[in-house]
Amino acid sequence: MRARLMMISTFLSFGLLCVACGQPADKAAVRPAAPEKRTSAGPAKAIRVKHLAGEILSVDPKTKTITVRARDVDVELRFDDHTVVKIDLDAVKPQEIPPGTRATVKYVERKGRYVAKGIFISAETAEKRESPPQSAIRSFS
Fold this sequence. Notes:
The protein is of the alpha+beta class. The chain is built from three helices and seven strands, in the order H-E-E-E-E-E-E-E-H-H.
C-alpha cells in the first residue's frame, strides 16, 4: 500500500512539473524595452571607412599629422593613439615610418578632417626605400 502511494505521488509530481514547464510565459511579466530617444533631429550617419594608397611624404609627431601623396594629390591625415601602424605584421609608432614608402591608409572623416585608423606598409617597400633604385643597378648594353 505504501509503495502504491509513493508511486502515485511521484507520477502526480512529475505530471504537474511537465504541465508547469509547458506553459507559455506570462506576457505581463515581459515588458519590451523603452525605445531610445534620439537627441539629434535627423537619422544618424554611418561612419564609412575609406582607403587611400600612396607615398608617405612626411610624418609630424608634434601636430600628429601624416601627409600622403595619392594620384598627384597631397592628403593630410591626423593620427591619434588609436591609430594602428604596421610594417608587415609588426606594430610600430607613426614616428618610425620612413618617408618615401608606399602605404595603404584606412581613414574616416570627422568634423571636416581626415583621421587615420590604420596605416599599413609592406616590408618590401620599406626595404626598397633604403636601398638604391633598381634602375641605378642595371647596366644597359
